[in-house]
Amino acid sequence: MNELYECIIVGGGFAGLQASIQLGRYQRNVLVIDSNYGRSTLCKTYRNILGWPNSISGQELRQLGRKHAEVYGVSFIQDKVISIQNVNNQFLIETETGKSYSAKTVLLATGLIDRIPQIKNLVDCLGSTIYVCPDCDGYEILNKSVLILGSGNIGANLAITLAYWSKQITYINHDGHDLDSKLHDQLQKIGVHYRKETIKEVLKEDDSTFKGICLHSGEIIYGDRAFIGFGGNKVQNSLAIQLGVNLLNNKHVIVDSRTKETNVTNVWAAGDLVAHSQQVTIAMGDGTQAAVWIQKRLLEMSVKES
């Protein structure tokens, strides 16, 4: 027989970690199953989180979160969940390595995966001097020259958004998808330089300092910082779909705004899997909110079982 956990959290990013800390403080028997891959593993410098004015990397924050949760007895395994079934009002979870686990409640915190083209040195600079989120890192390009590496309308809209922070923006439409004429006109109006050419490699200094790009034509375009805007990000919702969880048209999971519970009883969701502004601090808040209501449900269960 598998050990029956009171809650299994799928995903060890910031929503999952924060939830595990809260549930650990409730002295609940909690397991976090994490594949150790996602946005939080890529970002090297979060600069907009309370208490870290000099920045903290995603990996360091994850490590601190795990150590914090382990103080309260939370268990962690590195694996990938491939199946969840509701069997006799308990959740049977199967993993990629062939392990199985059972839980009374489940929190899905599987997030999303950004589409990152195979451009040499791009990942090395990502999260340090190449950014994804204008709300998180727009400040970092203040009065700097900026290259937008993107695709079609997605990259154009990102360039327009970032024009708030910098007047020195060049948008390289790497995938070559056509722009809407209105967007093209708007780029010209606000002074964004537009190039429709493929990128051969990112130029860097040291390990992660962006210096510019080299086009396939051999031309070099220099810049102080860069953003990527390729679109096609994948919401990691396959487990939610297996369970019959309702989704929005954009593939994000629908949750109760107060409790973070999905339409499937005893299944919660938090973080970037849910539709929100994709901020670390909001993901943390989601995790705490979900954990509070998971605790309430577990208390109800214990009353019924007694």
From TrEMBL:
Homodimer. The lineage of its organism: Bacteria, Bacillati, Bacillota, Bacilli, Bacillales. Its cofactor is FAD. This is Pyridine nucleotide-disulfide oxidoreductase. PANTHER family: THIOREDOXIN REDUCTASE 1-RELATED-RELATED. Residues 6-287 form the FAD/NAD(P)-binding domain. InterPro entries: FAD/NAD-bd_sf (IPR036188), FAD/NAD-binding_dom (IPR023753), Ferredoxin-NADP_redctase_2 (IPR050097). Keywords: Flavoprotein, Oxidoreductase.
